[in-house]
Write a structure and sequence with these properties.
Elements (H helix, E strand, L loop, with lengths): L3 H36 L5 H18 L14 H4 L1 H18 L5 H18 L12 H12 L8 H13 L37 H13 L7 H12 L21 E2 L7 E2 L3 H13 L7 H11 L15 H6 L1 H17 L5 H17 L18 H16 L1
Antiparallel strand pairs: 1-2
Helix pairs in contact: 2-15, 4-5, 4-6, 4-15, 6-7, 6-8, 8-9, 8-10, 9-10, 10-11, 10-13, 13-14, 13-15, 14-15
Length: about 400
Amino acid sequence: MTDQPTTSRTRRGTLLVAVACVVFLGLIVGLAVVANRALTPEPTQAERWRASFEDGIEYLIQTQQDDGSWRSEHYSVFNNDRVTLTALNLKTLTFARSELNMGGEALNTAIERAWASLTSDLAGRDPSELDLHYPAYSASLVVLALARTEDPALAPARESWLDLLRAHQHGAHNGFMLDDAAFGGWGNARTIPDASSTRPHEADISTTLFAVGALRLAGASHDDPAIQDALAFVERCRYKRGGFFFSPTTPVQNKAGATDRFASGRTYNPYGSPTADAIRCLLRCGVDLDDHRLTRAVTWLESADWSTNPGDFPSARETDRRSTFYYWAWSAAHATRALTDAAAPSVTMDTKLADLADQLVTLQRDDGSWANPAGGSMENDQLVATPLALGTLGVALR
């Protein structure tokens, strides 16, 4: 009985010592963590972009189908037609390997499987046999992809797709005249344009950009008649004060709407993505760097807010603005790069591109993909938005 108080005090003393040890160890660990953080620098801007880019590439690898293609779960046009998304994502993966020196077995295997899928659809088949919802876009992407291979077995396929691409231009070969609004341009029609048709003729600057880029990469010079006809079309998409709009033939496709502010009649509000597209079109069509059409387009973009697709959008079309964010980012990035490659860099555009790349990093989803909450331009599909976002980051990294 007389030993109990002593035993109790001993136990309390032991407990206090144990608590003190735990607190001391916790303090040591906490100081170690703080010290480690102090010694480990925050990732640089370029490192954040690179990590985001690599996560996006991993997403594309993980979503590749067993047959090597990519197919949309949201839009049947990109499910039945496996060529378009496969060519787009193959282009993205090969850019990662060739331009940013990414490697690894997973990436190399994905590229090989994508090539196998694409070539199985192309070799020995006429493009008209395929169910292409956007034949001019698809032909452009296929030609761009085929330009990265020297496989002689694919030479006939390349020529067939080039023939299809040229056939879809609104030109003299299918009855169009210079004063026709669609003359020189490409559009989204599923059939080859025919001037005698009573159906509306659709041509736009985005499809025209892809077509011109594919033709130039395939070896067409800037004085090729098809390229010069395209330049005439690009001119028709020009707003008088510097920017460009999407189409002179299809009013509803001009997402920033129309304006009546000129005595010469109705035109359309310029906005960011077609203005960026126009810069590349003009350069690829061979205009001089001091050409007023080019310099005014650059000035227009330099003064714009790049955090969203810029332009004077009517309030009723704000959803259209938001729905084109990833295409806008992709086009703005490539316009910036094109100016640099042409030895006419814009410091202002370089700075705005860096801010845009930072914005994309914050918008990336946990699985490495991107998707637009506004679905009006199919960017709510991760297999559409993700390669566009990766193209933007890739240019910023380059």
